[in-house]
Design brief:
Structural class: alpha/beta
Order of helices and strands: EHEEHEHEEEHEHEHEEHHEHEEE
CATH class of the largest domain: Alpha Beta
Largest sheet: 8 strands, mixed
CATH topology of the largest domain: Rossmann fold
Distance between the termini: 67 Å
Radius of gyration: 21 Å
Number of strands: 15
Helix content: 25-40%
Length: 298
């Protein structure tokens, strides 16, 4: 039997209320998904963290009248919140094995020539490549989001072997671990979330990365050392605020790779780093930007 699928953007303040409303209106299933490839980690007891950009999806019996259903949903939402719903994406979907379908959506992804991100239930397409094993879930950036993909492609296209790397805002460790699999000697991961550091460590062990090759710290607790490559896939304003701090952690002639930046923010971020780095022109994909630079002589 086909289903009517309603997909609606939401934020953490209203996602739960929207989920409840969809169930009240007769949805057979409601799910929430990340709309911006933002990692989340194991929540504290009694908390349910949500992504900053969440997509709430409801499945309804295909016999329902779509216009009537969406109209009633908009009316009920307005009565509850005095606000209008964002655009509702309506599609008809065939009945299927949803778990199998979810797994099929995550297939190995290639970045450049040598690097693959491989879900655990798939065989590596190229056993001789750098294959990073990660499972989709709360602590997994799939690599499909431009900010992650741009950084992974940079790592694949540059000499990483033998380098010391800092992954600032490491999250689940995808960038730092990719660097290690591409031959980096050591990675220092830094993140404001202690649970993110735990996720990075678990993913490192899944990929048989020795503990000694990956050190993980909260900001301000990392050693005062310098790296050949600085990776920072965060957001524009934190990158601006951290410019002098990150610059001080890169050796002369070292590389900096910045992402999490929208295209209209690129010039401002570049200007924040130009006192220390010779910055290259932005690489843009789907309105997101990667900035790279080479550290000036000290």
């Amino acid at each position: 039997m086909p289903w009517i699928q309603l997909q609606i953007p939401a934020d953490p303040d209203n996602a739960d209320q929207l989920e409840d409303l969809l169930m009240e209106m007769g949805a057979d299933a409601v799910s929430m998904a990340d709309a911006a490839d933002q990692p989340l980690y194991e929540p504290d007891p009694g908390t349910t963290p949500l992504w900053h950009q969440t997509s709430v999806t409801g499945l309804f019996d295909s016999t329902r009248d779509i216009d009537q259903l969406t109209g009633e949903l908009r009316s009920a939402w307005h009565q509850q919140t005095q606000q209008s719903l964002p655009e509702i994406d309506v599609t008809l979907v065939e009945d299927k094995d949803w778990v199998r379908s979810w797994m099929d959506d995550f297939t190995p992804l290639r970045f450049g020539e040598r690097l693959w991100i491989v879900p655990s239930w798939h065989d590596a397409p190229d056993p001789g490549a750098a294959n990073l094993l990660l499972d989709p879930g709360l602590a997994f950036g799939t690599g499909t989001h431009p900010t992650t993909a741009l950084c992974l492609e940079w790592l694949d296209g540059h000499t990483v072997a033998g380098k010391q790397v800092i992954d600032y805002g490491c999250g689940s460790g995808i960038l730092g671990l990719a660097a290690l699999l591409l031959g980096a000697t050591h990675v220092t991961g830094v993140d404001t979330d202690a649970q993110a550091l735990e996720a990075s460590r678990e993913n490192a062990r899944r990929n048989e990365v020795p503990d000694a090759q990956l050190d993980l710290y909260l900001p301000g607790q990392e050693p005062d050392t310098q790296a050949d490559i600085m990776l920072a896939n965060i957001l524009a304003q934190p990158l601006i605020n951290l410019a002098s701090r990150l610059a001080g952690k890169v050796v002369s002639g070292g590389d900096i790779v910045l992402s999490g930046i929208l295209a209209h923010q690129a010039r401002t971020v570049m200007e924040a780093y130009e006192p220390w780095f010779v910055m290259e022109e932005p690489d843009v994909r789907d309105e997101w930007v990667r900035l790279t630079g080479r550290r000036r002589d000290r």
